Every structure is written in structure tokens, then in C-alpha cells.
Amino acid sequence: EVQLVESGGDLVQPGGSLRLSCAASGFTFSRYWMSWVRQAPGKGLEWVATIKPDGSEKYSVDSVKGRFTISRDNAKNSLYLQMNSLRVEDTAVYYCVREDCSSTSCYYFYYYMDVWGRGTTVTVSS
Amino acid sequence: EIVMTQSPATLSVSPGERATLSCRASQSISSNLAWYQQKPGQAPRLLIYGASTRATGIPARFSGSGSGTEFTLTISSPQSEDFAVYYCQQYHNWPPYTFGQGTKLEIK
Q1: What is the per-residue pLDDT across A54-65, written as a single tens digit (0 to 9) for each?
Q2: Residues B28, B31, B37, B41: what is their CA dihedral angle, to the nearest 10 degrees?
């Protein structure tokens, strides 16, 4: 069974740091682009960051640039999100997401989000 | 950045009554659009990708259509388990990936 399990969410003070982890199983992790998507309480979905299968390319939303870092360890089938200088507005459920593509769309990097973890909750508050 | 706009914000239908949800992109995204379903307290689930291809295990009552800037998700005969929030997302021009604000499908 394809599965993504997040961990590491916690209550942290503004300015603090947190490291989220995502354990992948049931598929060849090293072949897939992976992302983090977040959802603030009562709000919609917001893409946070994406990483290439070999880790050589990383992308993130402007609001977290310079503060959050996405990384992966393919030997451990794990995805990470290092979160520094946390702000109240970073409070959200953070989802680990696998990306996939259909045959012809892969060439153009058209990836949709086909598998989602259950999420881990990050609360930034004093 | 491509802005995705969904309408209506809330759609009230009776079980078995056809439901039509709309999504508009601020510029052409070809067919690079996905739809997700989210129930309270759960993670989103992929329903449709490529604007019209159902994901594995998704019932045939869900269908997607459109290309360019206008897209539609249709639920032909909603069942009780289909009442949820639905999001569209473009993956044509990224970063960033962008989502619509969601449409809540509720029981009338």
C-alpha cells in the first residue's frame, strides 16, 4: 500500500524552528518528485515546496523562501521540511505529497499531486 | 502566478441531483488541471487529473471537462459521501502550484 506518514508537528513560539519528516512506503520513493502543501485553520490549500527525485532541484513559495528548506534522504525513503524563523501565519496542517505525471506530460514537468499523507499540525504561538 | 478562481463558494444540492462546480484560470493552462476532494478532518484526495482523467478508484459519477481557462467538475448523482470541499489546482506553470479557494458541496 502506498503510504505517506508525517511527523514532527508541534507548538512552537514565533521565531522558533521545527523539522517535519515524512516516511514513504509502498513505492519507489527515489523516482518521484515530492512536495509539502499546507492548510491554515479553516482555509484552503497552499503549496509550500517541491523537490526533484535526486534532490538537485528545489522550489518553494515566496513566503517561506530563506526560512524553510525541503530535503530528502532516498536511502531512508524520507522527506523533510526544515522550518526556521517561524511566524504565526505558518500555523497550519502540513501535508506530505507525492507528485506524478501521465506519460507525455512528464517530459514537460506537468505533475499533479496523487498521494497525500494525513498531515502534521504546526502551531506557532506565544 | 496563475490565479485559480472557483465558483460557487457553496453549492447546495439534494442527493441524486446533478452538481456542477466551476474553476477558472487567470491564463491558459491547457489541460493541466487537477481536482481534489477533502472531507472534514481528512487529507485531500485526488479525483481528476489532466482536466478529465479520473484517478484510480474514483467512481464514474465524477467527471471533469474543460481546457484553456474554463473547467468543470460534475457529479452526476451525488451520494451522501460526496458532500465535501472540492479544490481545483493548476500544474501547468509552476512554481508556484496554485489552488482555487474551494467549493463546499452541501446537502440541500
Answers
A1: 999 999 999 999
A2: -60
